[in-house]
Design a protein that fits this description.
The protein is α+β, with helices and mostly antiparallel strands. It has 11 helices and 14 strands. 28% of the residues are buried. It binds ligand 1OR (2 copies).
Length: 382
């Protein structure tokens, strides 16, 4: 803080920004104890500032081995939406959106079939039970778009949540410099428009049709009544876990939120088999609690532990990257909780982490040689 000659205290921009960030984070999460939350928040901020991924002796140039993450925000933060966060914040516990009759838009069998196809794979719908899913399908209505049409404009209030039936849609963000930039493109599937409805904030981005398109929309009220609690809970539940996985720092906060929607919890008992060496892969896992033993079968048939993973560790990615059978088996050590990510979502969401994963796989090979002298009697990981 500087004190210029006139005696007026100037608040540095950094300080203003950090305190604003902290306040927003506190208001969004409503954790109760301010001091404890502040300690946790600023520790996280400090850790995030210089996130490094330390590699083994096989590391290439120093530049390659350090992933600096100075831009990593300490909490999920979506563009310039924080300007209005004070106006309204979301507290799912005090959510009053349960009131009123749910909207029902009657549909023909053909429409139902098209809608069912469009919502398949929508991550936000994963935690719904059958009855909720039915309500969602009843409440959705069709909307067509023409090329160049803005379905959503950044800064507007949120009206609907959209599921894509077909068509190509660009996501555009106008930065502080006033320039509109494409940050993402949906090609014929997916959903958008949930952020403004979940967090009660202005639209974080614009969404513009690139081609003629067919959308299914759900109004704000229905979204909040049926989807909000489950989606919000899940994002919050997994936010902490995903924060602990260094590789995922390569994702933007928005992408991590999508990842949280996609994860499926699995509870395991001591010694339970999670992955069997040689099997075909259907997904990968993150360790939420407890530990996991990775074991490789030797020529004599005996299994040998090569690695133990704790909270924040991940496994089962190798077969997804190499498209080969599982290279090892994985077992729970004590009661353990893992989060499963299916292969389709892995391919869709973890593209930005691919380089880091591949580098870590290089390290597997190094370790392998150290452990066994050479890797000639084991399958090459590539
Ligand atoms: P919304 O209600 O804010 C715009 O309206 C929608 O665009 C938003 O919800 C999301 O559903 C969708 N950042 C923010 N919103 C995005 C993004 C995004 N991508 C799609 N939407 N980013 C792109 C990440 C690949 C981050 C840009 C910095
Ligand atoms: P997966 O899909 O092959 C088994 O299923 C998982 O165990 C694998 O993905 C990896 O996540 C993990 N070093 C460390 N982890 C390994 C190794 C490994 N093999 C498999 N996993 N290796 C080096 C030994 C110290 C073995 C390389 C073949």
């Amino acid at each position: 803080m500087s004190r210029p000659q006139g005696g007026r205290i100037q608040v540095p921009d950094d300080l203003r920004e950090i305190l604003l960030e902290f306040t927003i984070s506190y208001l969004l999460e409503q954790p109760g104890d301010v001091i404890n939350y502040a300690v946790e928040f600023f520790t996280r901020l400090q850790n995030n500032r210089t996130t490094t991924i330390v590699r083994g002796p096989s590391a290439g140039t120093p530049d390659e081995s350090i992933i600096s993450d100075e831009e990593e925000p300490p909490v999920a933060r979506f563009n310039n939406r924080r300007k209005s966060v004070f106006a309204e914040t979301y507290d799912p516990e005090e959510d009053d959106s349960d009131e009123g009759a749910p909207a029902v838009f009657p549909k023909s069998d053909a429409q139902r079939a098209r809608l069912a196809e469009a919502v398949r794979g929508i991550l936000l719908f994963r935690s719904l039970d059958a009855q909720q899913m039915q309500q969602v399908l009843d409440a959705m209505f069709e909307k067509r778009s023409v090329p160049g049409e803005y379905v959503i404009r950044q800064g507007d209030d949120g009206d609907n949540f959209y599921v894509i039936e077909n068509g190509v849609f660009d996501v555009l963000v106008t930065g502080d410099d006033g320039v509109e930039k494409a940050v993402h493109t949906y090609e014929g599937s997916g959903s958008f428009g949930e952020l403004a409805l979940m967090y009660n904030m202005p639209r974080a981005a614009s969404v513009r049709a690139q081609s003629p398109g067919a959308l299914w929309a759900m109004d704000r009220h229905t979204f909040r009544r049926i989807l909000l609690k489950s989606a919000f809970k899940k994002r919050k539940l997994y936010e902490e876990l995903l924060d602990k996985v260094p590789m995922l720092k390569a994702l933007q906060p928005y992408e991590r939120a999508n990842l949280a929607d996609a994860l499926l919890p699995r509870t395991l008992i001591d010694c339970e088999l999670i992955i069997r060496q040689g099997d075909t892969a259907d997904g990968m896992y993150f360790v939420e609690d407890g530990s996991v033993s990775i074991r490789i079968a030797r020529d004599d048939g005996n299994e040998h532990e090569i690695k133990r993973l704790g909270k924040g560790g991940y496994f089962g990615e190798l077969a997804l990257v190499t498209h080969k059978p599982r290279a090892a088996s994985a077992y729970a050590v004590g009661p353990t909780k893992v989060a499963f990510l299916d292969v389709e979502t892995f391919e869709r969401l973890l593209g930005p982490c691919m380089e880091i994963m591949k580098r870590n796989i290089d390290d597997y090979e190094e370790q392998l040689v150290k452990l066994f002298g050479d890797k000639s009697n084991l399958t090459d990981v590539r």
